[in-house]
């Protein structure tokens, strides 16, 4: 009987530790993913400003193409008076995919709050 109580106590202890450690582990994983996305954005930004003989046109760079696509999209919204945004689905549907421009995550920018 005592052995069974000990086993249950150990199981409850492990579950309790896991319950309290889960938010901490989740934060660590999120921070790692965010830092990888920031590094990837930094690399794209660095690639944009590098002068390379193989790149003859500014629009050949993924970041420059993404910026142009975003500018064109915002311009269309302004000219149309946002008439295409009629329901919730209009706001959730992506008009361009970041993966087409060399960004693997859904993170486009970040802000740092001091």
Describe this structure in words.
By secondary structure, the protein is an all-alpha fold. The chain is 63% helix and 0% strand. The radius of gyration is 24 Å and the shape is elongated. The protein has helices spanning 2-49, 62-80, 88-92.
Provide the succession of SSEs.
Answer: HHH
State the major sheet: none
Average of pLDDT: 80
> Rg, please?
24 Å
Number of DSSP helical runs: 3
Question: Got a strand count?
Answer: 0
Roughly what fraction of the amino acids lie in strands? under 5%
Helical content (DSSP H or I, runs of 4+): 55-70%
SSE class: mainly alpha
Uncertain runs are: none
- First and last CA, distance: 57 Å
The gross shape turns out to be elongated
Name some characteristics of this structure.
elongated, mainly alpha, 114 residues
């Amino acid at each position: 009987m005592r052995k069974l109580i000990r086993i249950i106590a150990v199981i409850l202890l492990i579950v309790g530790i896991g319950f309290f450690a889960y938010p901490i582990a989740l934060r660590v994983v999120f921070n790692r993913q965010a830092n990888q996305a920031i590094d990837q954005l930094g690399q794209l930004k660095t690639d944009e400003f590098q002068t390379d003989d193989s790149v003859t046109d500014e629009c050949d760079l993924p970041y420059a193409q993404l910026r142009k696509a975003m500018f064109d999209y915002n311009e269309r919204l302004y000219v149309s008076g946002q008439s295409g945004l009629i329901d919730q689905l209009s706001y959730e549907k992506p008009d361009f995919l970041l993966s087409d421009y060399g960004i693997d995550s859904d993170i486009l920018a970040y802000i740092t709050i001091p």
